[in-house]
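Open question from group meeting: does this chain pack into something compact, or does most of it stay loose? Before anyone orders reagents, we agreed to write out a predicted structure and look at it together. Recording both the input and the output here so the notebook holds the full record.
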Amino acid sequence: MDNNTVTKLLTDFRSYKFALMNLGVDETVNNPANIRPIYSERVPKHISRYDTAYDRERYTRIVTMVESAVNYVLNDDQRTVIMRKYLERNTMNLDEIANILHKHRTTVGRWHREAINKLSKALLPISKDYMEINNIDHMFDPNWTFKEPA
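Structure tokens returned:
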């Protein structure tokens, strides 16, 4: 996996985690925000090929692999930079992270670059097919109608 793909995966991580929390009841999924699953409510009943199990598998794999790789592969400094730049609720840029850590900007930039390189190797098993989040907002549009695929 190239570094740009890893960066995109990290940038979208919270979206994957939120989608996973909303896929419905699954005992293996930790739902710390106690969010009521809405994903299944938004699915039109007339789509027979819809498969929440496949989406749950994809998002679970992404969330689990990213969290595991960040916690296992990176050293503490690299992990701190990745968490603050991508995974925390209020993300920061590298200058802000450098100020908080009382480190030079180039040092934090080096930690970031090293972390992305390590993660690109660790996250290699995730294919691009798994990374797509299906947008279902059209289901809230009152003018939307299902069109049978050609």
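Observations to bring back to the group:
The CA atoms of residues 1 and 127 lie 8 Å apart.
Confidence is low (pLDDT under 50) at residues 25-29, 38-42, 44-49.
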